[in-house]
Amino acid sequence: MSVIPNIASRIIYGTAWKKERTTALVISAVLKGFRAIDTACQPKHYREDLVGQALVELKEKHGLKREDLWIQTKFSPVSGQDTTQPIPYNPSDPIRKQIIASFTKSLTNLHTTYLDSYLLHSPLQTDQQTLEAWQTLSTLQDEGKVKLIGVSNTYDVRILATLCKVRKVQVVQNRWYEGNGWDKSVFGFCKEHGIMYQSFWTLSGSPSLLSNPALLSIAATSECTPEQAVFKLAQEAGVTPLTGTTSEIHMGEDLRVHKLQLAKEGLGKEYGVVSSMLIGQ
C-alpha cells in the first residue's frame, strides 16, 4: 500500500476552488509541513496544472523530491465537468479511452510519471460504466502507474461492494459532515474492509458541531480550537481529513493536530455526545 510519507499528522491538503492562487497555496502548505496533496483533472473546480507548477517550484527552489510527496488526483466523468471549459478527453470516446486521456493529462499537469492515488471522482451514470471505469483504474495499477485506486462522492455501499469484487477499493473520499449523518454506512464499510476513508466538508459543513457545548468543553479543556478537536477526533476514529484552508495560521494548526492530546478526565459525557454524532457510538 502507498503510505503517505512523513505524514504523522494524517491530513491532506485539498486544492479545490483555489483557482489562480493554487500554486502559491500549495507551496505554502508544503513548506508548512503538508506532504499529501489532493487535486483533480477537472477545470471546473481545480487547477491541476497549477498544482504541478507548485511541485516544480518546490523541487527546484526547495529541494522537495517527487518521492517526498503523496499526490492524489481524480478522473472526473462528463457529468462532473463544465463543458464550457476544456475537457481533458473526448466525451464521445469509450470510458476506457476517456480515463487514459485524462490520466495522461494529469501526469503532464503534475510533472510526474506515477500517481500515489487515483480516484473516480464519482460513480458514472450506470453500474456498467462505473465497472468499466474501475477496471481501467485496476489496469493502471497493474501497470505500476498508480499505487492506490479508489472512489470519491460514493455514498452507496452497494457500489463499493460491487467494485470490490473486481479489485479492492483502497481509498474512499466523501463528504463527512452533519448534513449526511456522517456517512455512517460507507464509513462503517471502510472500517470493516481496511479502506482509507478521506473526509471533506467536515468543518465548513458542520456549523452546529463546531458550536456544540460538548465539543467546546473538550476543546477548552484540551487547550485547542474546536476545529483541531474535530480533526483529532476524526483521526482517532480512523478518518483522514482533507483541509483546504488558505490561512497559513490554520495550516499550522491543522498540522499540529497529530501531536495533540485531547483531555479525557471528567469529560466522558462530552465525548459520548460528540462520538455519538460522529461515528454513532
Automatic annotation (TrEMBL):
Alphabetized GO MF terms: oxidoreductase activity
SUPFAM superfamilies noted in UniProt: NAD(P)-linked oxidoreductase
Record's signal peptide: none
UniProt xrefs under CDD domains: AKR_AKR1-5-like
Ranges for domain NADP-dependent oxidoreductase: 18-205
Domain of life (superkingdom): Eukaryota
Name the UniProt record assigns to this protein: Aldo/keto reductase
Originating organism: Macrolepiota fuliginosa MF-IS2
